[in-house]
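Troubleshooting log. The previous structure file for this entry was overwritten by mistake, so regenerating from the original sequence record. Sequence copied from the archived sheet and checked twice against the printout by T.R.
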Amino acid sequence: MTDSPSPSSLLGRPCRHQALLTLPAQEAHVSAARHFAADLLTTWSVPASERDSAVLIVDKLATNAAQYGRERMTLQLVLDDGTLHIVVTDSGKAVERHRPDIAPDEHGRGTGIVQYLAQSTQVRQTHSGREVRAYLRCSP
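Regenerated output below.
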């Protein structure tokens, strides 16, 4: 885990915070990612309503990474100039859209919730897995 303000904050420019957490891609570790984000965003003085939205986004993205990743998942949080960047990567392949062994009312809403809460999202397959980005405006 790392958390560091950028040197620009020392020069009177807007503060940029960033933190990184790597965990095994297992559902048992989703709560650790959620608590990490909540504690960190409190430390960074992110307002409660935006913090709650961000923690819910982290929960949904980490849950997907735990379900579909193979070895590890990484959560990166960057607060820069009023925008919170939430990036979750995992070592899995592209998510199947339909799984017949899971009832449709039990799973599948996480992505929609993330898209609703975030100002924008991006999903891309990388050489080592999948990366999902969500951007959330945070008032000072």
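Confidence is low (pLDDT under 50) at residues 6-12, 101-106. Archived copy saved in two places this time.
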